[in-house]
């Protein structure tokens, strides 16, 4: 049996998709990954084959820097980083206006490239990142069955009047005005209309007789796999979802790093901090987290990403500070974590039974923060306005969950230990 995985050339997308595919690898099946060259080393580390596929302008092998990207993509990233400093609505507005070039890069060419790969690889099953719209367009046009993996909050696949790019819920600390929300929704609706026109125009080239769609963002594959814990899912959306499986998380097995293991063994309790591949550029927020941890008397393991550690002030000698850290391993030993609310961080933390302080900056991170707040599995704050004292209080709160909440979080982690996300995906595709 051969499984084909289709991913953008971004580590944050490829890692969970590749982890899903380990369910086939571990059963001695062939796995081929179609992605770009930046993540070739990641593909190799999983023991998979790689075939070249370009699905967008940019790439990211682990930590993203605007200066490492093509000019257009670098300019887009700088604009995004600037928008995060202005606020939530400003960031979502910027992302909405960038969406056509972000998500439908050379759609006909990319779709045809995917179909050529399928002819060459002859897969028995196909796993595709939901945000690989051009790839899914090709599969849709050719009538090829695939598993559609939604990485992020489930609202990344809008249902029942939802609009892509407009959060269906917000954490208490971030409450935009009704006027700002109305303007944002109107913009997202216009972008959705234009995106759908682009999808339909490309589809007309690929399959002239194919049925057009009314909302390209709401299109999905026959099998939808949500990389998300069911315990965080909004119960009000359940009946509206397409046939689906909640994977919980896709926690990969990371190679042992002896110095990290020694640090864990010697450190006692600690909190893990990471803002992921993109948002680690917000060194100003990381600095406040550092200062808050000192006040709260908390030891940290910090993945600084694109922020120079020198920007964080004087750091205690018993902290673990690196640009990149083995996140899954550290979450497996941490008492809590501080995150921007990215899908990998949230799902891996819940799968490890780790409560979160979440500081959402963009996209579906606001809805994800609201879900953590609703379930009691985390405390959400505005990254631009949260004070050092408020961050210290949030750290203390997640380190002292009430017994009921602690029990529910432990049960969520135990459910994922009993049946992993990759095994749930394998069962879904075998049915």
TrEMBL record:
- Reading the lineage from the top rank, the first entry is Bacteria
Q: Which GO terms describe its biological process?
A: antibiotic biosynthetic process
Carries keyword Transferase? yes
* Stored SUPFAM superfamilies: UDP-Glycosyltransferase/glycogen phosphorylase (SSF53756)
Q: Which InterPro entries match?
A: Glycosyltransferase_28, UDP_glucos_trans
**GO molecular function (one):** UDP-glycosyltransferase activity
Question: Which keywords, in A-to-Z order, does the entry hold?
Answer: Transferase
Q: Answer whether the UniProt record assigns the keyword Transferase to this protein.
A: yes
Q: CDD domains given for it?
A: GT1_Gtf-like (cd03784)
Annotated protein name in UniProt: Glycosyltransferase family 1 protein
Instruction: Name the species this protein comes from.
Output: Microbacterium rhizomatis
User: Species lineage, top-down?
Assistant: Bacteria, Bacillati, Actinomycetota, Actinomycetes, Micrococcales
């Amino acid at each position: 049996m051969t499984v084909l995985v289709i991913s953008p050339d971004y580590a944050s997308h490829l890692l969970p998709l590749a982890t899903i595919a380990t369910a086939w690898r571990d059963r001695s099946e062939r796995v081929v990954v179609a992605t770009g060259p930046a993540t070739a080393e990641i593909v190799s580390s999983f023991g998979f084959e790689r075939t070249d596929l370009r699905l967008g302008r940019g790439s990211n092998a682990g930590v993203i820097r605007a200066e490492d990207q093509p000019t257009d993509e670098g300019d887009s990233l700088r604009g995004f980083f600037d928008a995060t400093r202005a606020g939530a609505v400003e960031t979502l507005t910027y992302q909405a206006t960038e969406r056509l070039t972000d998500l439908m890069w050379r759609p006909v060419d990319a779709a045809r490239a995917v179909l050529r790969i399928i002819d060459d690889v002859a897969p028995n099953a196909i796993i595709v990142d939901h945000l690989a719209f051009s790839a899914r367009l090709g599969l849709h046009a050719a009538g090829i069955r695939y598993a559609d993996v939604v990485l992020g909050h489930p609202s990344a696949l809008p249902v029942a009047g939802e609009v892509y790019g407009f959060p269906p819920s917000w954490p208490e600390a971030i409450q935009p005005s009704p006027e700002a929300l109305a303007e944002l929704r109107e913009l997202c609706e216009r972008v959705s209309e234009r995106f759908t026109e682009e999808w339909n125009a490309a589809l007309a080239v690929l399959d002239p007789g194919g049925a057009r769609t009314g909302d390209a963002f709401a299109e999905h594959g026959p099998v939808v796999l949500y990389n998300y814990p069911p315990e965080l899912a909004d119960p009000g959306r359940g009946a509206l979802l397409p046939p689906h499986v909640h994977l919980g998380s896709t926690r990969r097995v990371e190679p042992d790093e002896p110095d990290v293991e020694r640090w864990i063994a010697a450190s006692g309790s600690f909190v893990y901090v990471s803002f992921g591949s993109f948002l680690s550029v917000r060194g100003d927020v990381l600095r406040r987290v550092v200062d808050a941890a000192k006040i709260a008397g908390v030891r940290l393991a910090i993945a600084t990403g694109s922020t120079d550690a020198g920007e964080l002030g004087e750091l205690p000698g018993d902290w673990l500070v690196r640009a990149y850290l083995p996140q899954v391993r550290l979450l497996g030993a941490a008492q809590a974590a501080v995150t921007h609310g990215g899908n990998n961080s949230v799902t891996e933390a819940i799968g490890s039974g780790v409560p979160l302080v979440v500081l959402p900056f963009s996209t579906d991170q606001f809805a994800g923060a609201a879900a953590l707040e609703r379930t009691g599995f985390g405390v959400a704050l505005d990254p631009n306005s949260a004070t050092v004292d408020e961050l210290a209080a949030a750290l203390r709160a997640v380190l002292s969950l009430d017994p009921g909440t602690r029990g529910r979080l432990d049960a969520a982690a135990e459910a994922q230990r009993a049946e992993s996300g990759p095994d749930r995906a394998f069962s879904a595709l075998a049915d």
